[in-house]
Design a protein that fits this description.
With 242 residues, the protein is α/β, with parallel strands linked by helices. It has eleven helices and eight strands. The chain binds pyridoxine-5'-phosphate.
């Protein structure tokens, strides 16, 4: 079974639209857990557009499953991660003006500084993951800097329209998943996944963990958080042939 980590950032997006206290990302996270999510993901962005520093502390203490903290490789975020001690950090590239994470991390040009972050996390027992495009160069670099896992960026796969291009991108993801697993990296995936497009990703045997946020939170508006998560788990299982 693939583990589903539910990203609750966009519960905070709605709250921050009014700078108030509801809806609560912690309450949403607890409902996701109740529905079977095996972990919770949050991204503390430099501009604090959704998740706030206190959310990280409150969610870390309040949830019953592992916390995956997505963050940019900056000094500020490293300091916070070492204070909060999440189960895992996932390094992502961050641009101020982007609507969401636009691509994987460029590891090759900053191996030394990323390796130092990984070492600090490992010293405190925190797993060290890197969000990467399905590109052999980046996977090899992730291995060199001793990442525990890579999360393959499925964003492009979920955005392409022609069936041929979708298949080509899927093949790149499959090949990358295999290459990473053969090197001993754990393989995760995420970005832009929904009930339909998740199935072909879930069918890739090396993938152990999925991070899904925006679509689940959107569906939760119609049918509630638990139903939205339950249905995603059903799609993942269907894709996996379970
Ligand atoms: N993985 C990473 C690294 C991300 O930055 C995001 C978005 O925060 C996701 C997964 C989840 O993407 P989505 O919200 O499109 O499901």
């Amino acid at each position: 079974m693939i583990r589903l980590f539910v990203n609750v950032d966009h519960v905070a997006t709605i709250r921050e639209a009014r700078k108030t206290i509801e809806p609560s990302p912690l309450k949403a996270a607890l409902l996701a857990e109740k529905a079977g999510a095996q972990g919770i993901t949050i991204h503390l962005r430099e501009d604090r557009r959704h998740i706030q520093d206190d959310d990280v502390r409150i969610i870390r203490k309040g949830i019953n499953t592992p916390l995956n903290l997505e963050m940019a490789p900056t000094e500020e975020m490293v300091k916070l991660a070492l204070e909060i001690l999440p189960y895992q950090i996932s390094l992502v590239p961050e641009k101020r003006q982007e609507i969401t994470t636009e691509g994987g991390l460029e590891i090759c040009s900053q191996e030394k500084s990323l390796a130092e972050i990984g070492e600090k996390m490992h010293d405190r027992g925190i797993l060290f993951s890197l969000f990467v495009d399905p590109d052999a160069k980046q996977l090899d670099a992730a291995k060199r800097i001793k990442a525990d896992s890579i999360e393959i960026n499925t964003g492009k796969y979920t955005e392409l329209e022609s069936a041929e291009e979708v298949e080509e991108e899927l093949e790149r993801i499959r090949v990358s998943a295999k290459r990473a697993a053969e090197m001993g990296l754990k393989v995760f995936a995420g970005h832009g996944l929904n009930y339909q497009n998740v199935k072909k990703i879930a069918a890739i045997p090396e993938i152990e963990e999925l991070n899904i946020g925006h679509f689940i939170i959107g569906q939760a508006i119609y049918k509630g958080m638990e139903n939205a998560v339950t249905e995603m788990i059903r799609s993942i299982k269907t894709g996996r042939g379970q």
